[in-house]
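Reviewer comment 2.1 asked that we show a complete input and output for one of the modelled complexes. We chose the nicotinamide-adenine-dinucleotide case, as it is the one discussed in the main text.
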Amino acid sequence: SNQLMAGKRGLIMGLANDKSIAWGIATALADAGAELAFSYQGEALKKRVEPLADQLGSPIVLPCDVADEASIDALFEGLREHWDSLDFVVHAIGFSDKSELRGRYVDTSRANFALSMDISVYSFTAVVQRAEKMMRPGGSCLTLTYYGAERVMPHYNVMGVAKAALEASVRYLAEDLGKDGIRVNAISAGPIKTLAASGIGDFRYIMKWNQYNSPLRRNVTIQDVGGAALYLLSDLGSGTTGEVLHVDAGYHVVGMKAVDAPDM
Ligand code: NAD
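Response of the prediction step:
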């Protein structure tokens, strides 16, 4: 434990269960002395998120469906009843119809393209828009992305296109908020077995491929992501904004299959 986040208050969005990347981030932040609030997507998740928030001593647990502007407004109004300022926000949210997270990108429907962009891209901008109004200089915003934004990955399809747009929005948001001393960054995490990931075709194969071919010869954990989030959300990251930080065991630097990787 350390006190890197002592005196800082932040909102964690996208916790579904203890496998969630949001949980790895929340535990690292709580361990560093942060005071946390959580939002959950719907009644079904409330009973999962409340006990986890309780474990970290966080009494503030509020609903928010990021597809709905009124719901995002209600979240921030609810937050203001507890806190008059905010130091950080974590957006660990993404969605696409899983029937389109397999097969060919070219077969993406207009409806699911719009939905994926709305939930996985615009929602971060919508959240930052509200968070900015509660933040002082030193504020920090973080979202989660994946290498499928930069290179073609099997089955990732429309989510790759959405993550590319999300990464671009991080750069634009960083410029807009930078003048006020607020930073905006993304972590590009390697594959981790979570609820959302289980919707992606051949996910076990993707995990194996990364394990055999990344420089560290392993997959990353939600604790690995938590450590990087602590850097970006604390004052250790004070000079870093608009960045996409890879936490992927180095996979993104590799150009071909490792010589010691088994045939798959
Ligand atoms: P997860 O299933 O634990 O979390 C996804 C969260 O998104 C859930 O809490 C869900 O409730 C929330 N969500 C979806 N639609 C929503 C809506 N309309 N309103 C509010 N919340 C909504 O999975 P995860 O893997 O921890 O995903 C977190 C983020 O990390 C996502 O952006 C994902 O794309 C990204 N990511 C995941 C991996 C991986 O391999 N797991 C790798 C890189 C990036």
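The mean pLDDT is 98. We note this here for comparison with the apo prediction described in Section 3.2.
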